[in-house]
Design a protein that fits this description.
single chain, alpha/beta, Quinone Oxidoreductase, Chain A, domain 1, Rossmann fold, 6-stranded parallel sheet, 11 helices, globular, binds NADP nicotinamide-adenine-dinucleotide phosphate, binds zinc ion, Alcohol dehydrogenase
């Protein structure tokens, strides 16, 4: 089978198409023909800073989000059968820690997430497969697992309810646009930002209530303050956007953090935090039932995955570049069978 593998994590990034033996399933595993796999910023982190892949792990096939058809199952698999159309829940949990036992499973103390989606075939834990209704396409499904499930859990962790005002700095990428769409679906009012006016127009078409084009955090803060106090900030940017995210919160408001694309070490005024009774909460991924719910939302028309661009496997490197250059609105999808 063909795979897209990172062969060198120094710049310029090398992602090469290589050949691997077709996988065969052991107990509890399935082999999936990958028809769609979506890119996430976490795939880029494998080329950067402290998340950079060590030499000994190269070549490495990245990719956590995949959908396709089951082509083989190992012993002891009853959840899915050959021919089923599925999407993978990329959460890998230990099954024995307190959070695996009591929930939510995305808080697993030994958490990890799947890699290997950018390939013609993928070997997966069959218990993590979710069957797709006929009216959900593999491309729509492959967009959901990491970005949409993370955004869904973040909104839930921030106790977002109808009528809340939700602030999403960086509203054009995977987690950002998902947060806007899902907050809209709850009945919240949404504020989203981007460095690009053109990209914001596309997010407005998805129902964004207030679009702010700004680069500087201070400019951004002023624009949000003009709209009003915020109940929940969904923050995947970190860095200087952390302080803005806290500043604009109303008393007892919540900022939920899942990333740090714009900087590792946030700063904010502690006094603002304690006098404002504000909450800062970390969040990572979501649960398998969360993803099942999202697939259901797509099936019944309440949610549409936003797809920016589709690429054949041969052009995986171009998809990585597009994400690095922040060119897209929504999700970049690789189609390994094309
Ligand atoms: N903890 C978890 O479970 C989890 C799950 C998913 C994602 N994450 C993290 O969340 C972040 C977003 O992931 P993603 O896949 O949604 O990424 P993405 O699609 O690449 O996000 C693009 C968005 O980030 C903005 N952006 C990127 N760099 C920026 C910068 N330097 N300054 C200001 N804005 C910037 C872009 O804004 P413009 O419109 O201005 O270009 C765009 O809105 C990543 O750090 C990722 O690792 C964590
Ligand atoms: Zn666990």
């Amino acid at each position: 089978m063909r795979v897209a593998a990172i062969t060198d994590s120094d710049r310029p990034t090398e992602i090469e198409i290589g050949e691997r033996e077709d996988p065969s399933p052991s107990n509890g595993q399935a082999v999936v023909r990958v028809e769609a796999a979506s890119l996430n910023h976490r795939d880029l982190w494998k080329l950067r800073d402290d998340d950079r892949l060590p030499e000994e792990q190269l070549p490495f096939v990245p990719g956590g989000d995949l959908a396709g058809t089951v082509v083989e199952t190992g012993p002891d698999v009853s959840r899915v059968a050959v021919g089923d159309r599925i999407v993978l829940c990329p959460l890998e949990s230990c099954g024995t820690c307190r959070f695996c036992r009591e929930g939510p499973e995305n808080m697993c103390e030994n958490y990890s997430s799947y890699d290997g989606a950018f390939a013609e075939r993928a070997l997966v834990d069959a218990s993590r497969l979710i069957s797709l209704p006929d009216d959900v396409s593999v491309v729509e499904a492959a967009a959901l697992p990491i970005a949409y499930t993370t955004a869904y859990r973040m909104l839930e962790r921030g106790e977002t309810t109808a009528g809340d005002r939700v602030f999403v700095p960086g509203a054009t990428g995977g987690v950002g646009i998902a947060a806007v769409q899902l907050a809209n679906a709850i009945g919240a009012e949404t504020i989203g930002t981007s460095r690009s006016a053109d990209k914001l127009e596309r997010v407005e078409a998805e129902g964004l209530d207030h679009a702010i084009r700004a680069e500087e955090p201070d400019e951004l803060r002023a624009a949000v303050e003009e709209i009003g106090e915020v109940d929940v900030t969904i923050n995947h940017l970190g860095g200087p956007f952390t302080r803005v995210g806290v500043d604009v919160l109303r008393t007892n408001g919540a900022m939920v953090v899942c990333g740090r694309t714009a900087g590792r070490y946030p700063e904010f005024d502690a006094r603002d935090l304690y006098f404002g009774h504000k909450r800062i909460l970390g969040s990572t991924l979501g649960t398998q039932p969360d993803l099942e719910r999202l697939v259901g939302f797509v099936a019944d028309g309440r949610l549409e995955s936003v797809i920016a661009q589709r690429y054949p496997l041969d052009e995986t490197a171009a998809a990585f570049e597009a994400m690095r250059d922040s060119e897209m609105v929504g999700k970049l999808v690789i189609e390994p069978q094309e």
